[in-house]
Amino acid sequence: MIEPLEEGQDFLYGRNPVLEALRTGREMNKLFIQEGQQKGPLAVIHAMAKEAGVQTQIVPRSKLHGLTGSDNHQGVVAAVAAYEYAELDDIFALAEKKDETPLMILLDELEDPHNLGSILRTADAVGAHGVIIPKRRSVGLTQVVAKASTGAIEHIPVVRVTNLTRTMEDLKKKGIWFVGTDARESDDYRTLDGTMPLGIVIGSEGKGMSRLVREKCDFLVHLPMAGHVTSLNASVAASLLLYEVYRTRKPYSR
């Protein structure tokens, strides 16, 4: 039976997510470590929590299952403040701080938390400045997303907006160009100019981009398929596009 959460609290689990939360100084109310592992694989986490003054409790494995409803906790669970969403200005502030051209990802009604977690992971890997999701019909920042992101959720601003198309209009006024994926009437993704201020738009797992979002895109690209499948997973498509931008912005040199 999953134990109830206090208001404004969430349970974060898994070694990498908890480790990144400690490294970034995220507010942590209590740490639960599986008995027998506090001096083993979880020794670093245990030591960091102690140094940060986080109350730590050694508990049986069944307790961790009760907190998370999962056996995939890797022996550690943290009671943390629920994730807070960023603002659009935070994305531009991060790009300015890094002295880089803005790069953001817009997710049109993505519903799978594992896809969102994977996209956050790639976004962090390529140095993107933020992810934008709609409030309705879209997965939010949950413990499953955090686990799938392997800690990247602590580093990438995620903005939640009421209307994605209106947000795109506002961002265009700030110089952002939008690239969407569409198999019809589109260019090969390798023709993309990644040096521009960009918003990469990824559609939902089943339907792809909505018509209104598609119409707001400045460019449409597709991923060539030489095999038998007709489409790729949303997070895989996002990864390919993001690394194409990375390749053009930071070309390889010997």
From TrEMBL:
The keyword rRNA processing does not apply. InterPro entries: Alpha/beta_knot_MTases, Ribosomal_eL30-like_sf, rRNA_MeTrfase_TrmH, SpoU_MeTrfase, SpoU_subst-bd, tRNA_m1G_MTases_N. Residues 11-86 form the RNA 2-O ribose methyltransferase substrate binding domain. The keyword Membrane does not apply. Signal peptide: none annotated. Pfam families: SpoU_methylase, SpoU_sub_bind. Belongs to the class IV-like SAM-binding methyltransferase superfamily. RNA methyltransferase TrmH family. This is 23S rRNA (Guanosine(2251)-2'-O)-methyltransferase RlmB. The gene is rlmB.
